[in-house]
Fold this protein.
Amino acid sequence: MRKAITAAARIAAAGASGLAFVAVIGSGTAQAAPQDCVVERNLFGASAVCQPDGGTNYVLRVDCFGLHATGPFPLYGVGPYSQLSYPFTPSGERITTACTGVGPGVVALATNAYVEIYRG
């Protein structure tokens, strides 16, 4: 019994350490692929600001990892997935996308974020 409790405590500590590592690595500012765009990522999502460019459309893509809805409730999955903003034309306004908008009770972390040119 004592070995099982010790093992469970070690697994919980390793999981908490891993989340702390993702929190430190996962936040910050990065330059996006299109010029004149700045992406600011946090633990659960990202936002982007792009300067006006005369009409090209963009999307903010946030790569997430965690619990997410895979179909109608109560179907859930655990693993990587992507969240997209609606296409936007840069105007200097901030656009935001989060990993938390894909079902009730979702627990997911942002692992990457970048701006893509939208061709649709």
